[in-house]
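Schema walk-through. Below, the input block comes first and the output block second. Nothing else is stored per chain. Lengths vary across the set, and this one has 267 residues.
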Amino acid sequence: MELIDIGLNLTSERFRKDRDTVLQQAVDAGVRRMILTGTNVRESRRAHTLTQTHPGTLYSTAGVHPHVAKDVESDWLDALRELHARPEVVAVGETGLDFNRDFSPRPVQERVFEQQLELACDSGLPVFIHQRDAHDRLHPILRSVRDQLSDAVVHCFTDNRQALWDYLDLDLHIGITGWVCDKRRGRDLQALVPDIPADRLMVETDAPYLIPRDLDPKPEHNRNEPRFLPHIVRAIARLRGEEPEALAASTTRNAERFFRLPAADSA
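--- output ---
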């Protein structure tokens, strides 16, 4: 089983002491390539720097998360444009809307999201999208520019059936995490996973967050890691009535195409 983790927060302080070990364990588990998530200009630069240490294994995104939209500085767009020109940066984001916590005012979130969509239209890069309790605003914004975007993925999808259909109608990709392994919180998502077309599905850990709750034994410090992605894939495969190896192959092909990565046999 060879996998691509499309969402990994490797710049997190929770990986500071053993980052190289975490990466090696992931590769040993079959997670051969990982996309590091950029959540603001500083973290996007850090993520890109990490890609330089593991060429062909690590790639990154560059963007501003809605939580910190209010904190952008005057040169943030130019800084992101510079990062988007780097070959290891494969998507714009993490960007989107979060009306659950409202760490940034909603009008500010929307403005910063729309500006990053413009960057994606200009650069031709796909978009890595965060959406929480904001579908009714995010969907029309996306729809208005979809024809100008190369592609987009709603990462860590946990919304309802209507939201899923709306995104699929826009030909978006859907990222599924270990949330699907939670028998209590993930029940609604479990029912939707079989409805995702095979060519639209990608997999991710969002580590160190969203650890699969059914891991046994539980890892030390309760930290999610990319090496747990095969566990998530097996859970998704059971829900879809597929063989894990077949699901791994299809999600890997999808990620290669979406992020424009070299095929596994040429990576």
